Amino acid sequence: MSSVDVLVLGFANLVADGISMGFGDYLSSSTEKEMASKERDVTQWEVDNHGLSQITNLVKRYQELGMDPQDANMVVEIFSKYKNIMVDEKMMGQKGIMPPDQEEKPWKSGLVTFTSFLLFGCAPLLSFIILIPFTNNDTIKFIGACILSVLALTLLGLAKAKISGGSYTLSALMTVSNGVIAAAVAYAIGWSLRNLAGLEEP
């Protein structure tokens, strides 16, 4: 397969996968937000129509967590004066659901995922683009693609550690290891299909 074929097929696959990942993130974020909004409406109805029982349940929960009965009653009494806060507290504390963020835009999450996928996913292809004017050796281009892929994965791991506050070294190693394993599996499958299943080029 020529370098041009690699670039064409690689870029087409990259865009297709990016669209799939971005749209999947959009659907996931939209569904999560919609479910949280519906659950908040249910919780709001419960607080409005069964306020006393909801207060009692919340007091019991705080006591189960180790809070003194008097303190639990005082805290819930304060919450009961602010229904929005009480609704959010019940959602998080009793149902384990985060209140919906009205400023969250699912399409932005999808766009960020799509863009990030393209930026980091194009690293292997850059090797072929950069080296085309200098060499026709596919082995050199392949090695260059591997090096750029490792660099991209390292940057991704460092960015992950920066956001999460974890170890930079461990995060980079884990990210690179994950990429190497995934690439090795893909290569093994491709090699098997080509050599064992009789899919050699004519």
UniProtKB/TrEMBL annotation:
It is found in: Vacuole membrane. GO terms for molecular function: iron ion sequestering activity; iron ion transmembrane transporter activity; manganese ion transmembrane transporter activity. The chain crosses the membrane at residues 111-134, 140-158, 170-193. GO terms for cellular component: vacuolar membrane. Its main location: membrane. Keywords: Ion transport, Iron, Iron transport, Membrane, Transmembrane, Transmembrane helix, Transport, Vacuole. It is a multi-pass membrane protein. It holds the Pfam family VIT1. One of its GO terms (biological process) is intracellular manganese ion homeostasis. It catalyses: Fe(2+)(in) = Fe(2+)(out). PANTHER family: FE(2+)/MN(2+) TRANSPORTER PCL1. Vacuolar Fe(2+) uptake transporter. Belongs to the CCC1 family. This is Vacuolar iron transporter. It comes from Chenopodium quinoa.
